[in-house]
Amino acid sequence: MIKLKRIKSFSLFSLLIFSTLSFHVEAEKLSDKECAEVASFVNQDNAGMVIDEVTTLINTVCIFGDFTYNYEISEYVTPRDFKSLAFSQLKKRAILQFCSDPTTRDFLDSVQSVTFKYIRYDGVYLTEYSFDEFDC
Prior knowledge:
By secondary structure, the protein is α+β, with helices and mostly antiparallel strands. The chain has one domain (4-130): 2-Layer Sandwich (GMP Synthetase, Chain A, domain 3). The chain contains 5 helices and 4 strands, in the order H-H-H-E-E-H-H-E-E. It has helices at residues 4-7, 10-19, 32-46, 79-100, 102-110; strands spanning 55-63, 66-73, 113-120, 125-131. Strands 1-2-3-4 form a 4-stranded mixed β-sheet. A hairpin with a 2-residue loop joins strand 1 and strand 2 (66-73). It starts with a helix and ends in a 5-residue tail after the last strand.
């Protein structure tokens, strides 16, 4: 089973991406076009990036203001086990990081929601979770 210590760094990746972007939107939501442009920008430099020993960012997309990170997990884990890990530890950590860092908080305020979606290396859907500014 995947251990948290192996995948703890992947949620820090979000902070790294957005530390290079500036958002001075002051609680104004990005348009669908602007959000898609941010996803495209992230993909240009970061799609396929290895986050840690078992996690790779496949790409990001933004549809109707929902900014989604699509990750691949390279280790065998059952959807049930990964879902348990995601909801007991990963989601809490992602929310904390997005809410506490000013750069990612500004970004979170500018989209409808953020979703982290995970698939296993063989294409099996593992789980996903979403959060928004009201989770802070």
